[in-house]
From TrEMBL:
Xref: Pfam families: Acyltransferase
Pathway recorded for this protein: Lipid metabolism
Residues of the Phospholipid/glycerol acyltransferase domain: 90-207
Protein name: 1-acylglycerol-3-phosphate O-acyltransferase
Signal peptide: none
Provenance organism: Bilophila wadsworthia (strain 3_1_6)
Lineage of the organism: Bacteria, Pseudomonadati, Thermodesulfobacteriota, Desulfovibrionia, Desulfovibrionales
Length: 265
């Protein structure tokens, strides 16, 4: 699917050494959020004019990754061969730590697999960012009625997978810097089983983009924290999917342990 050169061209990625600008050294927040807001503004305007496709989404996402690196953030990504060599769509199942993964994952996946997210309805109401997400035909959940959300994910997800579009699912109810397996539900596994497609585990550590006190999505940028992404090997769902769910959970716990992140009890 890729048609041009991309930041995450190889199956692994490591930010090359660079010296941030004076502004970025003095204020990483200003150095990051200024270009980030401009990228989202331009993308939102194009989306509202129906001039925003998958390639444009990947480029916008890559711009966010570049903006993070420009202020001193270090990105490490591995395991991308696991989905790039996979025929057909799949369900990506990962932990959810910050806003960062919603912005950066498309640059890793979209050039090779058409993909969309399961998203909260409230995100579609954000100025400019809402139209960007909406243009990608996401699966929308309200988070007020768990049964309705389950139906929306299973039916909407299956429809998109049958169209050849992969789906990114964060089974936690909310973003958290601590991974608690008890709050990591099986909705992604259920979707993959229903649609008959494989799952790709995704472990991530993205707390370099923190949660804000006034606006949760606009928290401090901590350049001392490395940003990690790792994709696991694909797996087919057998039986109830309990074993596969456990394998996904253990994969995330293992990688977070290696990266020095706390695990909830």
């Amino acid at each position: 699917m890729t048609t041009s050169s991309h930041l995450f061209e190889a199956n692994w990625y490591l930010t090359s050494p660079r010296t941030p600008s004076f502004l970025s050294r003095v204020s990483p927040n200003l150095g990051f959020y200024a270009p980030m807001i401009w990228i989202v503004f331009k993308a939102g305007c194009n989306a509202m004019r129906n001039q925003y496709d998958g390639e444009a989404w990947a480029q916008s996402s890559e711009g966010i990754a570049h903006a993070l690196e420009s202020v001193g953030c270090r990105i490490e990504a591995a395991g991308m061969e696991h989905f790039r060599s996979l025929e057909g769509p799949c369900v990506f199942i990962g932990n959810h730590m910050s806003t960062l993964e919603t912005f950066v994952l498309p640059s890793m996946i979209q050039p090779w697999k058409d993909v969309t997210f399961v998203v909260k309805e409230s995100l579609l109401k954000y100025p400019f960012f809402g139209p960007v997400l909406g243009s990608r035909e996401p699966i929308v959940v309200g988070r007020s009625n768990p049964r309705e959300d389950l139906v929306a994910v299973l039916e909407g997800g299956e429809a998109r997978l049958k169209q050849g579009r992969s789906v990114i699912v964060f089974p936690q109810s909310t973003r958290s810097s601590v991974f608690d397996p008890a709050h990591f539900n099986t909705i992604g596994v259920k979707l993959a089983k229903r649609a008959g497609v494989p799952v790709i585990p995704v472990a991530l550590k993205t707390d370099a983009w923190g949660n804000g006190n006034l606006l949760k999505d606009f928290g401090p940028v901590d350049v001392k924290k490395t940003i990690h992404f790792e994709f696991g090997a694909p797996m087919r769902i057998e039986g109830t999917g309990k074993a596969e769910h456990q394998q996904i959970t253990e994969f995330i716990i293992d990688r977070l342990g290696v990266w020095g992140r706390e695990i909830g009890e």
